[in-house]
Amino acid sequence: MENMENTEKENVLTEGKFKRLVVAVTVGAVLLLVILLSVMVYQLIAINKERREIAELESEIALYDELYAGGEDTLEARSKRLYIERRARELGYVYEGDVPLN
After folding, report:
1. Which stretch of DSSP H or E encloses residue 99?
2. Cα Rg for the chain, rounded, in angstroms?
């Protein structure tokens, strides 16, 4: 009978240890889950921030592309006008009000 009581005490003690072990593992798993979710949320926020910055930069690139394309026409037009004016002066044409340098 004494042997049986010792076995029951050991079982009760083992059940208590098992319950503590289960609680500890559960708490650890929950903590790990919370940490992983926090990291995931942080990463999603960082990704969205980078996407917004990329979109802003792409819109700026599009704006500068338009300005550049428009600038080529202006540069081409000015070059043509400059060439025409230079050639006209070589041929002796002057604007009204021009003072000859000779």
Report:
1. none
2. 42
